[in-house]
C-alpha cells in the first residue's frame, strides 16, 4: 500500500502529464492529417464574416447563442444551461486551486475565498449528478454507451474527493505549493498531511483523467473551437 | 459484413467528420431538431446516434474490454437495417448542425456515408443513377442540342401568342450576360422568360439543368463533373453571371462549393440564385410589379439549402412582400425553419414516399397554424414535397415559386 501511494505521489504524475501532452498532440495531429472538405460548410446567418472564423466562434460562445438555439428548437433551456453551468463551475473550481500550486497565504486564509470554492465545488458536483440522471432518462439512455457514464463517474469521483478535502480539512498555506513545486523541480518534498486521507484519491483520479482525456470525448475541449470554426469556413 | 462500407468510409473520413467521431458527447440536443425523429422516436433517427453507428463500424473489434467500453459488436442484420435508416432517412437539412453546440455536420456525415453504402450495394440507386445521367449528359449534348432548341422554340412561339409579346425570346446557347440554368420542366423557364424580357436582360438558357444528384450521395467527383459542363458553357458563351433556378441543393453547391471546385476557372463570373437576381431587378427598378397584386394569405417556406445553408433569407421575402397583401411567417422561420422532409434526394426515390409524408408532419402543422392559402418557396424539391403533403394531408393550399409570383404580377 505504501509503495502504491509512493507511486501515485512521485512517479505516475510525470507519466500522466506526458500521456496528456503526448495524447493531445497525437489527437491534434490526427485532425490535422485528415483531409479538409473542399467547400464552405457554413451555417447562416453569418453576421460578422469579416472578423474571421475564430472571432465568430468566440462571439457565438460568449453570447450563449447555443442556449437561444436550444430554446427555439427544443423548447427547453434546462439541459443546455445546466451543461454550460457545469463547465463554468468546473473552470471556477479549477481557478480556486490557485493557492494549491502557489504560495498565496492571503487567499488561503480568506473566508470568502473558501466559501467561493465550496460553492463552486458543490455546484459542480450537483450538476454532475444532474447530468448523470439526465443521461439515464428517456432517449439519452439508449443513446449512451458505457464510456459516457465512465467519463461522468470519473468526474464525480474527482468532485467528491475534492469536496471531502475542501469541507473537512484546512489546508496549510505552504505545504501543498511546496509539494507541487518539488514535483516540478525534481526536488521531492514530503507528502502533504493537511489535506487529509482523500488527497491521494483526488490526486490519483485527476491523473487518471489526464491519461484518459486525449483518448475520449473530453478532447472536445480542444475540438470545440476547431469543429465550430468549420461552420464559418 | 459491411467491410466495403467501412473501408470506403475510412478513406473518405474528412476532417469535420473526424471531429464528429471524436468529440460528439451525445448530449442528444440534436434529436429535437430532426423531423424524422419527431415522428418515429426511433434511435436510428437521432443525428448523434447516426454518427455513433458509423463510429462503431470504424473502430477495431476483438478486445473484450474495449468492445464493452465502446458497446461494440460485430455488425449483423440489425446493424445494416439501422444504418440504412440512419443514412437514407435524412434530408441533409442541417437543422441538427445548427443546434449542436459544436456544429457537428450530420449532412456531411450522411452524404459521405451514403457514398460508402452505395459501394456496399445498399443504396438508393435511383438517386445515383440520375446523378450519373447528369454527368454523361455533357458528352452527348451536341446530339441533344437540335431537339432541345426545337422544343424551346415551340415554347417561345406559344408564349408569344399567350402573352401577346411578339418579340419575346428564349435564347439557347447564345453569347449573353446571364446564363440561366433551369431545372427539368418548362415551369422553370416560363416565368423567367417573362421577367428577363421585362428587365431587358441579355440572357441565355443553359442546355443543362442545375440539379446535381451526385451531391446527394456524396460523390464529389461526379458532382464536380456534372457542374463542370455548366462552367464550360458559361465560359464559352462569355457569361458574366450564372443564375441557378429555384433549386436548393444546386444553389448551395453553386454558392458554397464552386470556389473550391473550380477556382480560377470561374474567376470573374458572378454566381447567384435566380431569386437574388430578380430581387436585384426589382430594387434597381429594372422591373415593376403591381403592388398587392395577390390578395391571398400566403407564407414563405425557407428551403434549408437556400436559407440555413446558403444565407438567402431576405431576398425572397422582399419579393413576396412586394406583391402580397397578407404575408404570414411560419414559426419558426429562417435558419430555424423545419425542413419540408423532401430534401436529400428522397423525392427521386418512389419507395421513400411514406417516410417523406411522415417527415413532413412538422411542416404541415406549421403551415396550418398560419392559415395561409398559398405556400411560396424557392426550391424544386420543396415544391414537389409540399405538393405531395398538400394532397396527402388535404391542406387545401397552393404551392408557388417566388419567381412565379413576380412573373404573374409584372407590369410589362
Structure description:
The complex is a heterodimer of chains A (233) and B (412). Chain A is mainly alpha-helical. Chain A has a single domain (38-230), classed as Fumarate Reductase Cytochrome B subunit, CATH 1.20.950.20. Chain A has 13 helices and no strands. Chain A has helices spanning 2-10, 12-33, 52-62, 65-74, 78-95, 98-101, 105-108, 111-135, 138-143, 146-168, 175-185, 198-212, 220-230. In chain A, helix 5 (78-95) runs antiparallel to helix 8 and helix 8 runs antiparallel to helix 10. Chain A is globular and about 55 Å long. The termini of chain A are far apart. The model of chain A has no long low-confidence stretch (mean pLDDT 93). Chain B is α/β, with parallel strands linked by helices and 412 residues long. Chain B has 3 domains: 3-123, Fumarate Reductase Iron-sulfur Protein, Chain B, domain 2; 131-282, no CATH class; 291-409, Rossmann fold (3-Layer(aba) Sandwich), CATH 3.40.50. A 4-stranded parallel beta sheet of chain B has the order 2-1-3-4. In chain B, strands 6-5-7-8 form a 4-stranded parallel beta sheet, sandwiched between helices. The relative contact order of chain B is 0.11. The chains are: A mainly alpha (233), B alpha/beta (412). Chains A and B meet through helix 2, helix 4, helix 5, helix 9 and helix 10 of A and helix 2, helix 4, helix 5, helix 7 and helix 15 of B.
Provide the descriptors you would attach to this structure in a database record.
heterodimer, A: 233 residues, mainly alpha, Fumarate Reductase Cytochrome B subunit, 13 helices, B: 412 residues, alpha/beta, Fumarate Reductase Iron-sulfur Protein, Chain B, domain 2, Rossmann fold, four-stranded parallel beta sheet, 21 helices, globular
Amino acid at each position: 500500500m505504501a509503495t502504491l501511494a509512493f507511486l501515485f505521489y512521485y512517479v505516475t504524475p510525470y507519466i500522466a502529464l506526458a500521456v496528456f501532452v503526448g495524447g493531445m498532440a497525437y489527437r491534434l495531429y490526427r485532425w490535422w492529417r485528415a483531409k479538409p472538405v473542399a467547400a464552405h460548410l457554413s451555417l447562416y446567418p453569418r453576421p460578422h464574416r469579416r472578423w474571421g472564423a475564430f472571432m465568430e466562434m468566440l462571439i457565438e460562445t460568449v453570447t450563449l447563442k447555443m442556449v437561444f438555439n436550444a430554446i427555439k428548437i427544443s423548447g427547453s433551456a434546462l439541459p443546455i444551461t445546466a451543461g454550460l453551468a457545469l463547465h463554468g463551475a468546473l473552470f471556477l473550481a479549477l481557478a480556486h486551486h490557485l493557492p494549491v500550486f502557489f504560495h498565496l497565504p492571503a487567499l488561503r486564509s480568506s473566508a470568502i475565498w473558501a466559501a467561493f470554492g465550496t460553492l463552486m465545488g458543490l455546484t459542480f458536483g450537483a450538476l454532475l449528478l444532474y447530468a448523470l440522471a439526465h443521461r439515464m432518462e428517456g432517449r439519452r439512455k439508449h443513446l449512451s454507451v458505457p464510456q459516457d457514464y465512465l467519463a461522468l463517474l470519473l468526474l464525480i469521483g474527482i468532485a467528491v474527493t475534492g469536496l471531502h478535502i475542501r469541507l473537512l480539512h484546512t489546508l496549510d498555506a505552504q505545504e501543498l505549493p511546496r509539494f507541487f513545486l518539488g514535483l516540478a523541480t525534481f526536488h521531492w518534498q514530503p507528502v502533504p498531511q493537511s489535506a487529509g486521507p482523500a488527497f491521494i484519491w483526488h490526486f490519483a483520479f485527476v491523473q487518471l483523467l489526464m491519461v484518459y482525456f486525449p483518448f475520449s470525448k473530453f478532447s472536445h475541449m480542444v475540438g470545440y473551437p476547431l469543429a465550430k470554426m468549420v461552420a464559418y469556413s | 459484413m459491411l467491410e466495403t462500407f467501412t473501408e470506403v468510409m475510412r478513406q473518405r473520413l474528412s476532417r469535420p467528420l473526424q471531429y464528429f467521431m471524436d468529440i460528439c458527447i451525445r448530449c442528444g440536443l440534436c434529436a429535437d431538431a430532426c423531423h424524422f425523429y419527431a415522428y418515429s422516436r426511433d434511435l436510428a433517427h437521432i443525428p448523434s446516434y447516426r454518427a455513433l453507428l458509423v463510429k462503431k463500424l470504424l473502430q477495431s473489434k476483438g478486445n473484450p474490454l474495449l468492445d464493452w467500453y465502446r458497446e461494440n459488436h460485430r455488425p449483423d442484420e440489425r446493424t445494416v437495417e439501422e444504418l440504412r435508416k440512419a443514412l437514407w432517412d435524412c434530408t441533409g437539412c442541417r437543422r441538427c448542425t445548427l443546434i449542436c453546440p459544436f456544429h457537428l455536420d450530420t449532412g456531411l456525415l450522411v452524404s459521405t456515408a451514403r457514398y460508402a453504402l452505395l459501394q456496399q450495394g445498399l443504396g438508393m440507386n435511383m438517386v445515383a443513377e440520375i446523378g450519373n445521367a447528369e454527368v454523361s449528359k455533357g458528352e452527348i449534348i451536341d446530339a441533344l442540342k437540335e431537339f432541345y432548341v426545337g422544343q424551346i422554340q415551340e415554347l417561345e412561339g406559344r408564349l408569344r401568342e399567350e402573352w401577346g409579346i411578339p418579340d419575346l425570346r428564349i435564347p439557347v446557347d447564345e453569347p449573353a450576360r446571364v446564363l440561366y440554368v433551369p431545372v427539368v420542366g418548362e415551369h422553370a423557364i416560363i416565368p423567367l422568360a417573362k421577367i428577363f424580357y421585362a428587365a431587358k436582360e441579355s440572357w441565355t438558357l443553359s442546355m443543362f439543368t442545375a440539379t446535381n444528384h451526385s451531391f446527394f450521395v456524396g460523390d464529389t467527383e461526379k458532382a464536380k463533373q456534372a457542374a463542370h459542363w455548366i462552367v464550360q458553357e458559361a465560359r464559352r458563351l462569355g457569361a458574366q453571371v450564372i443564375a441557378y433556378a429555384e433549386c436548393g441543393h444546386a444553389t448551395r453547391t453553386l454558392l458554397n462549393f464552386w470556389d473550391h471546385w473550380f477556382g480560377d476557372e470561374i474567376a470573374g463570373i458572378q454566381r447567384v440564385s435566380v431569386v437574388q437576381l430578380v430581387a436585384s431587378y426589382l430594387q434597381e427598378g429594372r422591373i415593376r410589379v403591381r403592388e398587392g397584386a395577390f390578395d391571398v394569405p400566403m407564407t414563405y417556406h425557407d428551403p434549408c439549402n437556400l436559407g440555413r445553408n446558403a444565407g438567402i433569407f431576405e431576398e425572397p421575402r422582399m419579393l413576396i412582400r412586394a406583391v402580397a397583401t397578407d404575408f404570414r411567417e411560419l414559426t419558426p422561420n429562417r435558419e430555424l425553419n423545419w425542413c419540408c422532409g423532401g430534401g436529400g434526394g428522397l423525392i427521386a426515390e418512389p419507395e421513400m414516399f411514406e417516410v417523406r409524408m411522415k417527415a413532413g408532419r412538422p411542416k404541415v402543422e406549421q403551415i396550418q397554424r398560419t392559415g395561409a392559402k398559398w405556400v411560396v418557396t424557392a426550391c424544386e424539391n420543396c415544391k414537389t414535397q409540399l405538393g405531395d403533403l398538400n394532397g396527402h394531408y388535404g391542406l387545401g393550399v397552393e404551392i408557388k415559386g417566388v419567381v412565379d409570383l413576380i412573373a404573374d404580377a409584372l407590369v410589362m
